[in-house]
Write the C-alpha cells for this entry.
Amino acid sequence: MPPHEQLLAELRAITGSAHVLTDPRDMAGYLSEPRDLYHDGQAICVARPGSREEVSAILALCQSTRTAVVPQGGNTGLVGGQTPLADGASIVLSLTRMNALRELDLVSNTMTVEAGMTLLQAQETASRAGRLFPLSLASEGSCTIGGNLATNAGGTAVIAFGTARDLVNGLEVVLADGRVLSNLSKLRKDNTGYDLKHLFMGSEGTLGIITAAVLKLFPKPQAVETAFVALASPDAALDLLTRAKAHFGNAIRAFELLPRIAVEIVLRHRDSQRDPFGEPHAWYVLLELTSQSDQGLDELLFAFLESAAEDGLIEDATVATSLDQAKKLWDLRESLPDLAKLEGGSIKHDISVPVASVPAFIAESTRAVLEAIPGARPVPFGHVGDGNIHYNVSQPIGADKAAFLARWDELNTLVHGIAAKYEGSISAEHGIGQLKRHLLAEVKDPVALETMRAIKTALDPLGILNPGKVL
Ligand code: FAD
Ligand code: ZN
C-alpha cells in the first residue's frame, strides 16, 4: 500500500473524499503564503472538514497516528505559520468550509460564528444587524475569524477596540486528542478560574484548533469622518494624537502614520490615485473619527484641525466629503504593502514600542539602516496610536533584489536591537510562525519561555499541532 494510504482512507471516511485534496494542483494554493518566503511546503493532503465533529475525529486520528496538523484559515498570515514544512509529514487542516453564523444575539450584543467565516463576512453580518464588528485588516476579504483569533490580529481599529482577543467572549476549541473544549459563553464577566480562551488566542495553531467563537458586537456608528493630515515629523504626529485623544477619546477609530515615500509609492503604481495635497509633505496621518450622533462630527473635526494648524502642529489637512473620497484616502494606506512589492525587495519589521518612543525609534532605525545599506529606502508606517510601526525597508533603486534580501537577518538584528532598547516587541501583531521562531529565545524572558513550553506539553504532549512554529 502507498505511504499514508490508510490515513487518507480514514480521512476520506470522515469528511467525504471530495474534501481530502491530494492532487498537487489542488493543494498548491495551501502550500505557500502571501509573502512567498515559504514556498517549498509539502503536505500529505489538505483536509477540509465541514463541522466541529469532523475536526474532532480528524484530530483523534492524527493523534493516534502521530500525524502533524497545520491549521489554516484564509492563508494570509505573514510569518509562515499556516503553511506546512518542507518535510511533507503533516496534513493541512483548512477551516474555510466551516463558515456558518450559529447565532446572533442583539440584546447580549454577541455573534457566534464558525472559525472559517471571513472577517469581511463577519463585519457584513454585524452591519446587516445594525451592529459593528470592529476588527479591521487590509486582508479582511480573505482572512478568517479563526486565523484572526489564532494570531490575535491587530489592524487599524485597535486604538479604539483593542486586538482580536479583546473582541471575544467565548471560544470552542478542538484539542490535540480530539476532545472539544466548549466554552461558547456570552458572559462579559466570568471569573471561575483560569480564562482558558486566552491561551488559544495568539497561539498560532500550536495549542488547539479554534472551531467557533462568540464575538462582541458594538453599536454601529451614525457618523464617520476621515481626514488625511500633513505634518512635519513623527513628533508632530504624537502631539496631534495626544490632542485628538483629549478631544475625541474613544471616538478615534484609526490613527495611521505614513511617510512621504509611502504616498509616493502608491502614486507611482496606482493610476487612480492623486496626491491629496498640492505639495509634498514629510509625514502624513490618516485620522478617522466616529460618533453615535449623526450630527456635528464634521464641525468638531474641522475646528480641531483648524486649531492644530493655527498652533503650527499640522501643515495641511483634507477631510473626505463622500464615502468614495474616504475610500481613496484609506487606499493610500491599505494598498501600500501590496504596491511596495513593485519596488523590489522589502525587508519587514513588525515593531511595537511605547507610543512616546515611536519618533526616537524611527529616527534611530533609519540612521542605522542607511549606514548599513546606503540608498536603502525605509518606509516606516502603521498604527502609531498603538506604538506599532511596520518598519519596512525597500531596496535601493536599481539594486539586485536577491542580494538585498540576503541581508534580511542583518537588518532585523539592527532594527530589533533598537526596538529592544526601547523595551519594544519584535512582533507586535503578526506573530512568530516560522519567520521569527529562531528569535524567540533571544527576546523572551527565560521563565516566560519555560512556561510556554510547559503549556504546550500539557495541551499537545505528542507535538502534533503545528510543529516547527512559534516554539
Ligand atoms: P492563516 O494565515 O490561515 O493562519 C494564521 C495562523 O493561525 C497560522 O499559524 C495558522 O496555523 C493559525 N490558524 C488559522 N486558523 C486557525 C484555527 N481555526 N485554529 C487554530 N489556528 C488557526 N495582521 C494584523 O494583525 N494586522 C494587520 O493589519 C494585518 N494586515 C494584513 C494585510 C495583508 C494584506 C495581509 C496579507 C495580512 C495582514 N495581516 C495583518 C496578517 C494577519 O495575521 C492575517 O491577515 C489574519 O489574521 C490571519 O488570518 P487567516 O485566516 O488568513 O489565517
Ligand atoms: Zn499592521
